[in-house]
Amino acid sequence: MTTSTPTSPRALAWARRRQSFARSWAAYRAQRTGMIGLVLLGAIVILAICTPVIIDESALSVTQATGGRMAPPSAEFPLGTDEVGRSILALTLWGSRLSLLIGLTATVVAIVIGTAVGVTSGHVGGWYGWFALRISDWFMVLPSLVVAIALLAVLGRSMGTTILVIALVSWSGTTRLVRAQTLTVQNRPYLERARALGAGHWHQMTKHILPNVLPLVLASATLLVPSAILMESSLAWLGLGDPNVVSWGSILNRASDNGAVSAHAWWYLLPPGLAILLVVLAFMMCGRALEAVFNPRLRGEPA
Amino acid sequence: MDKVLTARDLRVEFGLPGGRTARAVDGVDLDVAPGEIVALAGESGCGKTTLARTLLGLERATGGEVAFGGTPLGRSTKALKAFRRHVQLVLQDPSGALNPRHTVYDAVAEGLRIHGITDDEPGRVADALARAGLRPPERFFLAYPHELSGGQRQRVVIAGALVLEPSILVADEPVASLDASVRGEILSLLLRLKEDAGLGALVITHDLGLAWSIADRIAIMYLGRIVEQGPVEQVLTDPQHPYTRALVSVLPDSPVAEPIVLAGELPDASKIPGGCRFRPRCQEVASGSALAVLGQCEGEDPVLGSGAHAVACHLVHARMAA
User: Fold this and answer.
1) Which residue of B has its CA nearest to A215?
2) Does A195 contact B106 at a Cβ distance shorter than 8 Å?
3) Cystine design at A287: which of A11, A223, A293, B166 (Cβ 3.0–4.6 Å)?
């Protein structure tokens, strides 16, 4: 019950939304790993955004490289240099931009496809629902890396195709999750009430089903980002990345192509590898915490 | 006759696995006019809820028709939408009937938004809440369902129906999930809406006492068919159909002297007995007092007679003819 006298219902509805956001935030804050992940993630994102300010893009140029060939860490190059004398630190920091960008964009695309297919297949059902489910099953059982390699080979190597391919191989899990939640919400009496009020499918899906599905989608999206980043790194490491840009995977690809392992050039392999590990870890921590906030069953509370 | 909700020979069948068909509603005639409350009573599983859902157009009739104001209920989305401004639903469990993520304001305004009624939305919502007995309405605008009591939630559901200014409410067990102390309030709300606003209501219940206290007319349903229908005082003080007599006999202060316990279970709706569907459980058949009409009971489906107090029973028909 509210105590204040309302000015406009819409403004006050926003006030209530802020309140419920504050409640979720408090539940999230109570989870230590989630907070560690969030701080870590914040630091990485800020670093990635600020990289052009810290290090000039010319540091990535092969022709303007100043360092020695695979030189170990020194005062001038804190993380050593690669086979043409570029700073590994500069490469890793610039690589973070691309890895995060591809990871996030691919996740957004995958989530949009997955949610749309999941909600419609669960709500509409029938022939369409069966068909959509079979398609998503098909994508789920295909070995994603193999499909991604095949698609990239056909579509050509560029950032856009990489994003598209990663999204294509990872939307089906979200579809499953969203469909299951849709079917649960579908049978709630308030949907019956909405139908009796005269609501069409669009109203039911956008006003009732989607708001009940979105929190879970958000949590699963956070868990999808690290796998998208890993997939991008794997593809780039296999030499299927965009050749014109630097990502963590492509650094590792160059390192192994140029014999960094036999040269014992650990400074060439470890920074991008650890960066991938850190980002994946940070996203996982945030995702798990979000899942616990939005799925009360994981918190051990009645829903 | 202009705003009467009518069902004529309404049938709803469901296909079951194995090619069987369940006849949930099997030839029902029913009228609900504005300004009257009709109670629909019967055991669980007799098809009451299916009948209500069909009357609202939520379930597709396989035979017969539902009409409002003489116009048969169309199948198109547009026709159904127009129909739903006139006939509204109140569900049994108010906790489930409200989306937990919507405020009271959003829940009540939902109908207006669906029907594109945009003028004076806050005023209409406040008015509906006030008519449903939530006063002052502004205090409830931003409450979430979980912050309200069961009775208040049911009032919100009723307000959500009233906001469209319907002429008929279909209420499926409107108080079954509420505390005894709140039941009276919700029932008197329905009575007040009938008297003040001329609202008609079809109240589905298994509780004859409840029907007695609020309804003008009552229809007793058995296995998908109405077996007795009439003014509530007549039907409950002078029950004619053996099934109604059995239901009434177990009430306190019953006009039927001996409590009658029916034999057996309610048959499956996919195996409706031939002849009179109540015959296998009928106490008159079992005691032998229906011997004279037994042939008819076994062979013919009794017809619900016309008239204010109508009964679908061969024995009653024979007695009346005699």
Assistant:
1) B101
2) no
3) A223
